[in-house]
Amino acid sequence: MPSLPLSEKVRIEVYLPDAPKVAYWTLLNELDLEFTHTFGGATTIRGMAGSYLSVAGLPIKDRVSLIYTDISASLTKNLAFVTQYAEKLKRAVFAALQEESVLVAVSRVCHVD
After folding, report:
1. Contact, 68 vs 10, CB < 8 A?
2. What backbone phi and psi angles, to 5 degrees, belong to 19?
């Protein structure tokens, strides 16, 4: 079987509590629009189970939503841009929710072309 060409992408993921409050739904919709208009698309997965340690050191079980986008770029060549974007994204999410349990993650992924 011939090998398929791979293209490197940068994946930006935002994990949010899946809370039944307007602010969470609004932010998820805003992130979807931001990722779609800026990078061409987004994927949202709702209702995942998660856990984390609170600031007080107590384990918390939570429902989590994940929204992510893949950027057609090399992480190594665009590290400064991706770092700045992820930091800006995390500040915006915290400002919108004032939540201690938000994770913004960046990783390198490959797509089969």
Report:
1. no
2. -95, 145
- Please tell me what DSSP assigns to residue 101: -
Asked if 56 and 2 count as a contact pair (C-beta separation under 8 A), the reply is no
Task: Please give the structure tokens belonging to residue 11.
Answer: 């994946």
Q: Kindly tell me the burial class for residue 10, based on how many C-beta atoms sit within 10 Å of its own C-beta (0-12, 13-18, 19 or more).
A: buried
Contact in structure between 4 and 112 (CB atoms under 8 Å): yes
pLDDT-based confidence at 53, cuts 50/70/90? confident
Is the pLDDT at 3 greater than 90? The verdict is: no
* Average pLDDT of span 43-70: 91
Q: For residue 31, what are its two tokens?
A: 């992130």
In the chain, domain spans: 6-112
CATH class of 6-112: alpha beta
> pTM here?
0.86
